[in-house]
Write a structure and sequence with these properties.
This protein is α/β, with parallel strands linked by helices. The chain folds into two domains: 131 residues, Rossmann fold; 195 residues, Rossmann fold, CATH 3.40.50.300. Helix content is 33%, strand content 19%. A six-stranded parallel beta sheet has the order 1-6-5-4-2-3, sandwiched between helices. Strands 8-9-7-10-13-14 form a six-stranded parallel beta sheet, sandwiched between helices. It has a two-stranded antiparallel sheet with strand order 11-12. Strand 11 and strand 12 form a beta hairpin. It comes from Luteimonas composti. InterPro entries: DgcN-like (IPR011669), DgcN-like_C (IPR035086), DgcN-like_N (IPR035402), P-loop_NTPase (IPR027417). This is DUF1611 domain-containing protein.
Length: 346
């Protein structure tokens, strides 16, 4: 029996804690759901489980669904966001094992758990739930383009899976630490699992996507900040439409451009070169000005996770000098990140 999770359901309503399922993936970039839960909701994660052939780990204890259930887990979350959001047939034995061990299944894929007959049948027999969080609410409006009260910041990227969600979470937390009224607005399945609410932008019919972005960030007090999780890239050969709808509908006052140091080609599309940070800033401001004429770029979030501390500091300093804008790695924090936060609020 399938249960869809509506836009405003709190995270506490989902069965937790979780066992994180990593499938058989070999590309770390596709494990962003598992990484996001590990980093931003560690108290909800008891371990990880994968299939034969998988080489990616979230660094959590490896365990079977039966062991996870003994340790208190109540659900297994599919921690993978692969191209097309599909559930390969090779994963079915592991997913069935979780149901049989007494765990509910939570998915954020385009493929719906409840549409897979073997899962549906076993869930019914064992009294387990199949929960899809990548399910937009009914009745989404067409965008109006009307300006809304409150202030908004949107993270935009040079590519997928390089830090837009982490940057938005870190900035929202920094705003609150400074005493500001700020909300993180999740626009993808991982963000929804972390925040407990949001709207899966890439599951919305195209005509209603900008309207969905308006709904995600409604009218608010003049001093309130919505920090909106970006999706994809305006230059992405497959996903640019989602990014543009989110940019137009969210009507950000401020954008922060996100980039991974050293990435040169589009993830999953290696025959496409990555756009430069400068090109991405220019494109975001030109396109964003259509619905937010005063839009500005506060700076750059640079993912330096593959670099040692000294090299990361050098890379951040070099890009800041090149752009004449604040640059920081939010996960490293420090003075550079404080300068980026200052620029967002300026």
């Amino acid at each position: 029996m399938q249960t869809a999770v509506p836009i405003a359901r709190e995270a506490e309503a989902l069965p937790q804690p979780y066992l994180l399922f990593l499938g058989d993936i070999t590309e770390p970039g596709y494990a962003k759901t598992a990484y996001g839960l590990r980093d931003w909701a560690p108290e909800r994660c008891v371990g990880e489980y994968g299939c034969a052939g998988g080489t990616v780990s979230a660094g959590l204890p490896a365990m079977t669904p039966a062991r996870a259930r003994m340790l208190g887990a109540r659900a297994m979350v599919i921690g993978v966001a692969n191209p097309g959001g599909r559930i390969p047939e090779a994963w079915l034995p592991a997913l069935l094992e979780a149901l049989q061990a007494g765990l509910d299944l939570i998915g954020g894929m385009h493929a719906r758990l409840g549409d897979i007959e073997p899962l549906r049948n076993v869930a019914l027999v064992h009294g387990r739930r199949l929960i899809d969080v990548r399910e937009p609410p009914p009745g989404l409006p067409v965008a109006s383009g009307r300006r809304r009260s409150g202030r908004r910041l949107l993270t935009v990227g040079t590519d997928c899976a390089l830090g837009k969600k982490y940057t938005a979470l870190a900035i929202a937390r920094a705003f609150r630490d400074r005493g500001l009224d700020a909300d993180f607005r999740a626009s993808g399945q991982t963000g929804i699992l972390i925040a407990g609410r949001g709207l899966p932008m890439d599951a919305v019919v195209a005509d209603f996507a900008a309207g969905a972005a308006e709904l995600l960030s409604p009218d608010a007090d003049a001093a309130h900040w919505d920090v909106i999780e970006g999706q994809g890239s305006l230059s992405h050969p497959a996903y640019a439409a989602v990014s543009l709808a989110l940019l137009h509908g969210s009507q950000p006052d401020v954008v922060v451009v996100c980039h991974e140091h050293g990435r040169e080609t589009v993830l999953g599309h290696p025959h496409f070169a990555l756009p430069s940070v400068e090109e991405t800033i220019d494109l975001a401001l030109r396109l964003g000005a259509r619905t937010s004429p005063g839009i500005r770029c506060a700076g750059v979030s640079l993912n330096t996770g593959r670099l040692p501390a000294g090299a990361a500091e050098d890379a951040i300093g070099a890009l800041a000098a090149r752009l004449g804008l604040p640059v920081a790695d939010p996960m490293r924090g420090g003075a550079a990140f404080e300068r980026l936060v200052d620029a967002c609020l300026a």
